[in-house]
UniProtKB/TrEMBL annotation:
This is Transcriptional regulator, LuxR family. The keyword DNA-binding applies. Pfam families: GerE. CDD domains: LuxR_C_like. InterPro entries: Sig_transdc_resp-reg_C-effctor, Tscrpt_reg_LuxR_C, WH-like_DNA-bd_sf. Residues 197-262 form the HTH luxR-type domain.
Amino acid sequence: MRLRDQAITRKSEANEADLPGEIIKLYEAEADLISLPEVLFAGVGRLIDADVVTYSEFHHASGEFRSLLSIEDDPSRRAEAMAAFARHMNSHDFWRCHPAFFGERALRESDFFGEEEFATLPIAREVFLPSRARRIMSIVMQNEDYVLTISGHRVIGRAAFSDRQRDLLEAYRAHVLRSYRQACDRTLASMTPTDRLRIAFPELTPRQLEVASWVARGKSNEDIATILDVGIETIKAHVKAIHAKIGADGRLAIAVMAHTVPPFTRMPPLWRIGEKVWGGHPPV
């Protein structure tokens, strides 16, 4: 490429990538956990000129993960790709998305694999290339006991992400993490006591959740039995089961936990909120 062409390319990138503008848009959105993925899909896509953006949560203690895509795709194909990714993700630290490896950097597949080598990788042949995904750049953020990962992808035939685009995503990372934590706070603030218990303790049955919500409102066993039109012994049995399942040692403890328990400590939010809230991007 001639120097004049290089200068034109750099000028074009500078015009297309507006880091301050994207940061402002990110904060102005005031997103909660439900709306944040769409905001990041748009912002990251513009910032680094990505064709597809993925939003993933990795729970390394269990080896499980969930992902959302910025585009609609074939659910069966996506399920196959996620299963293949799970089989091969431990073949290189880049795929594992471990925060100790990434640190605060944005990393690209081209930082580790040459053109010919990438084409031979099982993870490339089974996950990315069948979907025409070729170029990948990711940031990784630790939150609680899980990891949030945002990745930009480009299709076959497009150039690798440039150093400047890497630097832009790297600079954006701190704002993504801050916005994510703010989104968690907004989501928690909007939750009812029943929501908190349902998400934090999925082992509670619907009836036990109903009973716990009335306990949290200060109702006696007799009151709850009347409200639900069941026998007092049934309510006592439900309260005993609630005590055992959530580790509460009395009615006051149930009430306190219903208003204060952090719902996302055992598993990441994407797994707990449920598929319906994600609209056209159900978790896999």
